[in-house]
Amino acid sequence: MTQPAGARANVRGVGSPSVRVTALATAAAFGAYFSMYAFRKPFTAASYSGASWGGVDAKTLLVAAQVLGYTLSKFIGIRVVSQLPRRARARTLLALVGAAHLALLGFALAPLPWQLVFLFLNGLPLGMVFGLVLGFLEGRRHTEIMAAGLCASFIVADGATKTLGAWLLAQGVAENWMPFTAGALFAAPLVVCVALLQRAPEPDAADVASRSERAPMDAAERAAFLKRHGRGLALIVVAYLALTTLRSLRADFAPELWRALGEVAAPRVFTSSELLVALGVVIATASTVRIQDNRRAFLASISISVAGLGLCLVALVLQALELLSPFGFMVALGLGLYLPYVAVHATLFERLVAMTRDRGTIGFLMYLADSFGYLGYVAVMFGREVLRERGDVLEFFVVAAALGALLAAACFVLAGRWFAARAAPPA
């Protein structure tokens, strides 16, 4: 039942959640999602040189096929993730990754163009994994800490699993079989981590009092939530679309950006920059767990997001003035983009549901934003070959980053004002 907007619970003195439970759940969530990346990303380490279909090189087509499946999965996840009960979460998660692994087996055995179909089928189930993992963590007094750990996994797993793919190729594994082999190496860790998540206790009474009860949402409940909060959510979705597009540009064009800045990005340099970004993001995001009032925490998350985008703009100005090293520029830019990106995942929607006390889940809101955000990723994917041929990646990225950061910051500020006006101020 919906309670008045802004209702909240003062939970001082109720006792802190178990540090052991928080630590184990965070580690299990990190491990589960990191393992999923081994079923998704290693294939991009192969060149598939010499192969083409319809006049387009195979690598471009294969990446496009998987991303299209992954994007469609986000739209499907709006319904599936939001209404799946806890008891079915673990087995559904393992079944989805298992289906993705079978698709990699088909990829290994089939020729082009059938490989495109199998990579589409590989991406189709994997897009729902994040929401299922996040479902084990939401609605708790330490959700921000656990979700920050989960988000750290996708910051570092992208590069790490590509490195795994390159290593397997160096060991003599054939290009077509490398993705399936990489997934097989992480099957056991995935099962262990999901089993640990399933064993984590459900939110206790103090968690529910602090953050509200989280229950599956049917279609009518999803529609009611959107009717009440649609305008504010639309602003967050637009900001998230801009963030996802910029994050994708930075990730997909990382080698070109490093070269344009005058430095060749050795794997260790790229890894070092991403580890620093992940560390900064985790610290900033997890710090909001200390704010007990949900309205204040929501607005603090908005502030962190705007501050991150401000850091992006400062980095762009300093780079234009040649006052920032290439490494410093890439780290500052990554930190500035990931601060709001992870805030949406870990804090913003968590505290929004807790602040309104409406029946809702992070999974529903996250997949609503993610589905549109990945449309921006698709646009980047189809435009990247044109940019590479023109050779002006850095110039284009600087302009896109400046415009995108300004748009996202404006949307976050307006969303904060919209929700703050509808939530009761703290007593």
Plain-language structure description:
Helix content is 74%, strand content 1%. The chain has a two-stranded antiparallel ribbon. By secondary structure, it is mainly α. It has helices spanning 19-37, 58-83, 89-109, 114-126, 129-135, 143-170, 178-185, 187-199, 205-211, 219-252, 254-260, 267-286, 294-320, 326-356, 362-390, 393-420, and strands spanning 52-53, 56-57. A hairpin with a 2-residue loop joins β1 and β2 (56-57). It has two domains: 18-215, Growth Hormone, Chain: A (Up-down Bundle); 217-427, MFS general substrate transporter like domains (Growth Hormone, Chain: A). α3 packs antiparallel against α4, α6 packs across α7 (178-185) and α10 runs antiparallel to α16 (393-420).
Give the terminus-to-terminus CA distance: 23 Å
The main β sheet shows up as: 2 strands, antiparallel
Number of strands: 2
Whole-number count of domains: 2
Coarse morphology: globular
Radius of gyration (Å): 21 Å
Q: Portion of residues in helices?
A: over 70%
CATH topology of the largest domain: Growth Hormone, Chain: A
CATH first level of the largest domain: Mainly Alpha
Order of adjacent strands in the largest pleated sheet: 1-2
